[in-house]
Amino acid sequence: MNALTPPASVEIVEVAPRDGFQSIATPLPTADKRRCIEALLDAGVTRLEIGSFVRPKAIPQMADTGELIAAFADRPGLRLSALVPNLRGAELALDHGIREVVYVVSVSESHNRSNVRRGVDESLADLGRVIARLRQSEGTRLRLDLGTSFDCPFEGTIGWEQVDRVLGEALALAGDLPLEVALCDTTGRASPYQVAEHFTRLGERHAGPGLDWAFHGHDTFGMGVANALFAVHHGATAVDSACAGLGGCPFAPGATGNTATEDLLYALQGGGVATGIDLPRLLAAADLIAALPGGQTASHLRQVPRDRLG
Amino acid sequence: MNALTPPASVEIVEVAPRDGFQSIATPLPTADKRRCIEALLDAGVTRLEIGSFVRPKAIPQMADTGELIAAFADRPGLRLSALVPNLRGAELALDHGIREVVYVVSVSESHNRSNVRRGVDESLADLGRVIARLRQSEGTRLRLDLGTSFDCPFEGTIGWEQVDRVLGEALALAGDLPLEVALCDTTGRASPYQVAEHFTRLGERHAGPGLDWAFHGHDTFGMGVANALFAVHHGATAVDSACAGLGGCPFAPGATGNTATEDLLYALQGGGVATGIDLPRLLAAADLIAALPGGQTASHLRQVPRDRLG
C-alpha cells in the first residue's frame, strides 16, 4: 500500500436509500425519498442501491422500492441496484426492471438467521437459483453482499477463513458470471488492519477476471473512513456509503450509521481520487436527508462550517 | 505502506490535560484535573502533555500547570511534557521540573500571530534561545510542535514546502540536539493523503539520528483515525490524542475535538500495535472526562455499548 499513489478512481455506491431509509423507524413518504434521490443524482452519484425486495411486514420502509425504481430507472448513466434476500426477491427486482441484484448472505450463521431467517446453507442454495435466473437475462449483474465479514453481533470477531468458506461456495456457484463481492462490516467493529488482512488474503485466493471487490462499512466505532481507505488500498474498487451518515442494521443490535458519503468523498478527494461526485452538492443532499423526520445523522462534514470546506 | 505489517509499537501522547482542558471555557478545578490524570495513568498512559506555560490572562485554564507537575513529576516511567510559546515559558517549565519542553510555532504567519502573538521569525529566534537554554540542562528534551502544518484557518491549505521552510530553520538551530517534530493538523482539515505526503517528503529531506516524528490531529472532518494511521505508516512514531476526544484550539476558529485516544487505540490494537494502554481503563478515564462540566466530547468508542468492545 503506497498512499502516495492512490487509485485514479473509486466507485462510490450510495446506499442511503436502502441502508439509510430502512433505519428510520417510521417509513418515509415516497415523495420525500424521491426528492433526496434527485439531490443525490444532482451531486453526481452514479451507483445507487435504491431499496430492497424483502417482506414488507419485516421492513415496511422498503415497500415502495418498485415505485422508486420506476421513477429513476431511465436516468442515463445511473447504475441502480436493489438488495434481495432470496430468489423471490430477485425475481421481483428483475420484474421491476432492476439490472443489478444485490444478494445478501451473512458469513455468520446466527446473523444470517436473524437477518434473513434461514441458515447460510439455505441462502447459498437459493443463491444458486438466483444465479441460474440471472443467466437467463442478458445484461444483468450480480453483487454479493457478505454480511458480518469481520464481526457478528452474536458471534464476535469473524476471521477471513470463515469468509473464505462462504465466498468459495458462492464463487463455485457463480462460475464465469461477472461478480462484485462486498465484504460488509455490518456492525462497524472492524479495524483498518482487519479490513486490510481480509481483502489481501481473499484477493490472493480468488483473483480473476470478472471478479471485483467492494467494501461496506459503518462508522459506529469511528473507523469508517480509515476502513474504507484501507479497503481501497488492498483491492476494493467500490465502497458503499450513505449520504449524511444515515443507516444501521435492524437486525444487528448496536450498529449505527453507515460511513457518511461526504466524509469518504472528502478523504478520497484529498488524494485526487476521482469519484464523479461534487462535494457541495452532496452536502446539499445531506442537508435534505438530515432534515427528514427521524433523519439523525453521523456525518462529520455536515458539522463543519461550509466556508471551511473549500 | 504495507498495512499487513503495522509497526510493533506506537507512542500515544495524551494531550487531554493540555489541548482538552484548555478548550473548556470555565477553568476546571485542579482537583478534577488530578482525578482525570490519575485515571489516565491507571490506564497505562506513559506520555502526557500536562499543560502549558502561557500567560494566565490569555489561557486561564492552564494557570495550575505547575501545581499539576508537582503532583505527578515523580511517577516512575511517566514522560511529562508541557507546551511553551516562548523562552519565558520554557524557563518556567524547567523551573517547575519539566524535562520535555514542547515549543510551538505555526507554519502559517497569520496563525502564529493569532496563537502566540508574534511572527514566525520571532518565534524561531526565540526557539534558538530555548535551545541554548536546554543545552545547559542535561537530560532535557525538545519537542517542536509545528502548528498548521496542513491547513491554516486564515490562509487555507499549507503545502509541505511551507512546512519545510520553517522546519529547516528549526533544525539548523537544533543542530545535534535530539528532537521530536510534530506535524500538527490544528484544524482537522488535513486528508490522509496530505498527511502521507507531508511525512514522506519531509522525512526524505530530514532523516537522521536524533530526529523523531509525531502527528497531532483533530477529528473535526472525520479524518482523525485515518490521518493518524497514515502518519504512522509514513514515519511518525508518536501520535497525540485526547482521551474522550476533548479539545480544540481557542485561536483556530471551527476546530473541534482532538482525535479521541480510545478511537486511535482501538484502531492500533486491531493491528496488534503495542501502546501500553488498556482500553477498558482508558474508557473509564474517558467517562470521568466526559462528565466534567463543559466536557462535551467527540469520542466514537464511548458511544458503543461496552459489551461490544470486548
Automatic annotation (TrEMBL), chains A, B:
| SUPFAM superfamilies recorded | Aldolase (SSF51569)
**Domain Pyruvate carboxyltransferase: residue ranges:** 10-283
Looking up InterPro entries in the UniProt record yields: Aldolase_TIM, HMGL, PYR_CT
- Gene Ontology MF term list: hydroxymethylglutaryl-CoA lyase activity; metal ion binding
GO BP annotations, alphabetical order = ketone body biosynthetic process; L-leucine catabolic process
**Presence of the UniProt keyword Metal-binding in the record:** yes
Q: Recite the UniProt keywords alphabetically.
A: Lyase, Metal-binding
* UniProt family annotation: Belongs to the HMG-CoA lyase family.
Report the PANTHER family cross-referenced here. Answer: HYDROXYMETHYLGLUTARYL-COA LYASE
Q: What is this protein called?
A: Hydroxymethylglutaryl-CoA lyase
